[in-house]
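Lecture 7, part B: from sequences to assemblies.

Below are the input chains for today's worked example.
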Amino acid sequence: MPVGRTAPAPPAPGTVLPDTPTPGPAPGRGPLRREGPAKLTGTALYTDDLVFPGAWHGATIRSTEARARLLAIELDPAFDWSKVVVVTAGDIPGPNIVNSIQDDQPILATDEIRHHAEPIVLVAAPDRALLRQAVGQVIVRTEPLAPVLDPLASDRVFVHYEIETGDLAAGFAEATLVIEGEYRVGHQEQLYIENNAMIAVPRADGGVAVHGSLQCPYYVHNALKRSLLLTDEQAQVVQAETGGGFGGKEEYPSILALHAALLARACGRPVRMIYDRHEDIAATTKRHPAVVRYRSGVAADGRLVAQDIEIVMDAGAYCTLSPVVLSRGTLHAGGPYACPNVRIRSRAVATNTPPNGAFRGFGAPQTEFAAEMQVNRIAEALGESPLDLRRRWLYRPGDTTPTGQVLRESVAAEEVLERAAEAAEFERVRARTAGDRAQRGPDARSAHGIGLALAWHGAGFTGSGEVHLASVASVELTADGRLVILIGSTEMGQGTKTIFPQLVADALGVPMDDVEFAPQDTALVPDSGPTVASRTAMVVGGLVIEACRRLRAVVEERSGGPFADTYRADAGTHGATRIDQHFRPYPGVDFDDTTYRGDAYPAFGWASAVAEVDVDLDTGEVAVRSVVAADDVGRVIHPVLAEGQVEGGTLQAVGYATIEEIKLHDGRYLNDRLATYLIPTALDAPRISTILVEAPFSGAPHGAKGIGELPMDVGAPAVVAAIHDATGVWIHDLPASPERILAAMDTLVRR
Amino acid sequence: MIEPPLVSPPTLADAYRLLAESVYRPIAGGTDVLVQLSGQLGPPPDRLLDLWRLDELRGIELDGDALVLGALTTYSGIRRSAVCRDLLPALVEAAATVGAAQIQNRATLGGNIANASPAGDMLPVLLATDATIVVGSIRGERSIPARSFWTGYRQTALRPDEIVIRIRIPLVADRQVRFRKIGTRRAQAISKVVVGLSWVAPTSGSPWRTVRLGLGSVAERPIRVTATEAFLEGRLPTPDTAAEAAQRVAAEIQPIDDVRSTADYRRAVTARVLHRLIREAGSW
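Predicted structure of the full complex, as structure tokens:
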């Protein structure tokens, strides 16, 4: 199949630097990853590699019930407690709250236990053997309470939204075809390579420094300040090398840092809290399960005239980031299709299960799976190609979304769809699989199928989120003539440490090797906002470029010569020059958080995927053979890293589609180990062909819109469509496991 | 990780003596035992007896009309063995499905047998080939047929002082052996269903004799389904045979729902795979 890496167009001359040639590596090319050699040679220092002499080891005693009254915490008097420290909620100097959107999650449970694996008591000891003994001598007395485990039965709503546009009743009245569906998606574990890990070190000023595996240093900083009653300086957060996050280290490190810091305060020494995989899977956040009910109306002439969508997300026991996860899921639920009459109602509810949180895609994969299932089922009902149907319905420049946002620019739905479909030869393969299906006997061994999906993904924070974040990014020409990037954005494997020096080298006209990247330490770098929402390259990258332009202007004004030739001398004469660039709202972008009207995102990224599968008709096993992914990222900064993001996101989506599943019993995860929570191996990985499309966003100086989450939105619906093409059955619930496929096929045979 | 005391005897005789004196948990490649040392999956063993140095328990050889494999034979060893490939390719096929390369380099056939997991990948093949498990102790050696070796959930016929020392698989003229493992993914997966099937037939048109059907992950231990075997005995691999055998095996097993799969799925897939194997044998 003539599919391959498609080299992105080189940056248009003059796009970034209109006035000078570019001596260093520039956007559009790909230097080696900055931290790559250290990772490859094993010298990179992850949290567990950091040595703090005299450090103790910490452990968390957790709930073994989904819901209970906490009656007492007892320490066996036979044990010598003088050799260890024990921390309970009463030892927290400030509020017993993990700082987040709502003040509902305690650092340690007090009266009521609300989920399995909820932290109750902390223990630290000088060595692991003593720690294990001490943990065994803590008795937690509880009285069970009836848990709420079914989100549809939960009456505790953390947040709800409603978006309505047009006249839904009129839309359905005009419809000659109405397709309804209910789609269920389950938990998904991020499964970063490195588990959550944190080391807290007491500071001489009475504060605490934490070193850990994390995405958002300032989230942790705020959490420490608030609950330990510390000043900005007393709370110090340092990111260690971080082995993956995918959202799983967005909010969770706050509670872990608080635990480590409380123990470090109690024993007056550094305390290490390094989760093993079992604890990490059992206790940390997952992708929100969701139930999406969908009703679509199609007019006689084939127009999409009505969408009525109801979303219920299971937040788990505490709110965490559910309001923003649900918001993104709600805003994307219609899919990338123009429809005049839309109602989307959504709610995130509490259950007595571990809290769910951020995970690549952040609510959108759940609802866009449902949206794409609807489109594919409608195409089948109309007897029309799913490609042709999308061609008619997809957003084009000038179209209006359900929030009233007019898509003025950077709309590449059509381009990603056409590029993916062409590269995958979608119609040719589809004709072949249709022929195979017609000729297939009842005893056929396997079946091949092809499926298509299209998605949009809002770039940056939702609504006015970026305005509230008020991010700062800095560039400094130091007194000794070095160029240093100062941002709070973190490297977790996606390439931050490489692309920012690229952007700065390009903006200043200097070699990339001359650009340094300050450590992600809150004592050194400003709050550039969290490293989430595929926002770093777009938003923080834009700020850094603006800062560079100002720095360059200042120096060139003083020196009268080109920056690259004069900046070292300038530093010698004028000392350090630091530019702090503050976020300014994107012009013409306005959103009302209360009415949910307006520009939900400054721009959207667009993605399409075509998947081919083989289904074993004896066993229902699915082998995803290939995925062609076309993703519009605005502007490619580093093609190799960008393709890596698409490949990794696609494989994570293939896992979500086919095998990744958390099974629960009484609110406890049954498969909370790597032996039982399975993700695809290299042998299960399809051949992934990446096509990078560039529809730049004018609000960012370099045009980039972000990439990390895009592929996660399209993989699962494409794979499930391919399973349908192979077998004739629709799998409405993720994952499309062999158990579900075989059950659906048997139903089909009986009919 | 808990690290119990470990002794590492240099000879099999030393190992027998130690086992006669006190209770040890034998450890070979460690792929099952190391997981238990986390202490999270039940009490860890008190004392370990390391078998890795016992070269007497290594080697794959032909002994008359039997293939004899030392208990310390690794899956990589089976995969590399020309003798196994030539004489019992189903064993090689099964070895290739165990864990992944790192596991196959350490995990041993004897360990898989002694660990007695109902999901042990190799065990249905041993059942289907009438293998004999030879065990030894200071009191001497004895042979236990595979069909009576696994006595219950993770229970074996081994006495506390005995270890598995070798496996003897008779090589039977005109025997066909088939293997299928159904797991969640293509490597590093614990099975949902394992099927080992063998029969003797001089030609593809001959009726099946000495039919053996060993199954994994459908009961509390690896089992043979003797009623289905009896049905297949003397029959030709026709469509009617396949349909009836599939129905019978589905009725004969009582799998359970667990974290890896469902009873319904296991029953259906066992039947469908058996149907497929008979169909392939009959070339229809």
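Note for the exam: The interface with chain B takes residues 132, 276, 278, 443, 445, 618-621, 623, 659, 663, 670-671, 675-676, 678, 680-684, 738-739, 742-743, 746 of chain A (CB under 8 Å). Keep this in mind when comparing with the next example.
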